[in-house]
UniProtKB/TrEMBL annotation:
InterPro entries: DUF2225 (IPR018708). Pfam families: DUF2225. This is DUF2225 domain-containing protein. It comes from the Bacteria.
């Protein structure tokens, strides 16, 4: 698990990590315009789809701003088999973590304010007291910065003893960010193959952790889990199992979806695609 947290040392949180990530339930730039006579052509940039949204930290009560994607401004061009949305203009996944720059508390947007007093105290003692503030003033988030925020969110989730589903969801979305970075690597870079290999290994590790966490959450948590109903989660588990070469789990979950009386036709269609992929990989019918 140390690889997932590699890099937190620069934030003063090198002591976070070690041990098991999941708890087994059986024992959480300005717009550039080119002017022409009677005509203007705008060069659209990533920052054109962002704005600074104000937040109040539930841990230290500081007010701060974080980059947020403008709702309805980006177009989805595809959805990966593990439900990762792929947007045309900006990688929206980079901006899904809200991090307080003052104290180091960070979480995915859906979990940012859902803290009890005991969790707040744990974060103050184990995160805030060790956190080294880093000022980030760029108009957009680099992939390096986005991954750092996700690491911080996972560290906070571990400290506050978050549900397995929350920790699994952070791992999944971190994997999505790594995949987005890989897709945007420059193939002319002499280090391209090395970077691609490193990213692919990191993504697979994160997907494996996400799979393990969601399987445990399915056994112990009530639905909805990370905003998903039971059939959506079952599909996601099947997809993650396919991506991490755990074909026995994939086959079991695909079968359950296809024979389910409550799964809708959309999910069943996606499950059939997974079944075809499984057959191609294993030769099983």
């Amino acid at each position: 698990m140390a690889g997932i947290f590699s890099g937190l040392e620069k934030l003063g949180l090198g002591n976070i990590g070690g041990g098991d990530l999941f708890e087994d339930p059986k024992k959480k730039e300005t717009v550039v315009k080119k002017e022409e006579p009677k005509k203007k052509l705008a060069l659209v940039k990533e920052e054109d789809f962002l704005f600074d949204k104000k937040y109040k930290c539930p841990v230290c009560e500081s007010e701060f701003e974080a980059k947020t994607v403008r709702t309805g401004k980006v177009r989805m061009r595809a959805v990966d088999i593990d439900l990762r949305p792929d947007y045309s203009e900006v990688d929206q996944n980079k901006y899904d973590v809200i991090g307080c720059p003052e104290c180091g508390y960070a979480a995915l947007g859906r979990y940012f304010t859902t803290l009890n007093k005991y969790q707040i105290e744990d974060v103050r003692v184990k995160i805030c007291m060790n956190y080294r503030k880093i000022d980030y003033k760029e108009p957009t988030y680099s992939y390096e910065h986005a991954k750092s925020l996700y690491q911080l969110a996972l560290a906070n989730a571990v400290v506050k003893k978050a549900k397995n589903s929350e920790k699994a969801y952070i791992c999944l979305k971190t994997a999505w960010v790594v995949r987005g970075e890989t897709q945007r690597l420059d193939e002319s870079d002499p280090e391209y193959e090395t970077k691609k290999k490193e990213n692919n290994e990191q993504e697979k590790e994160l997907l494996t952790n996400a799979l393990n966490g969601f399987v445990m959450a399915r056994q112990s948590e009530e639905f909805p889990i990370a905003g998903m109903d039971s059939t959506t989660l079952d599909y996601l588990i099947a997809a993650l199992a396919m991506e991490t070469d755990q074909y026995d789990i994939a086959g079991k979950m695909i079968s359950e979806i296809l024979t389910s009386r409550v799964a809708n036709s959309r999910i069943k269609d996606k499950a059939r695609i997974l079944k075809d992929m499984l057959t191609e990989k294993t030769g099983a019918q």
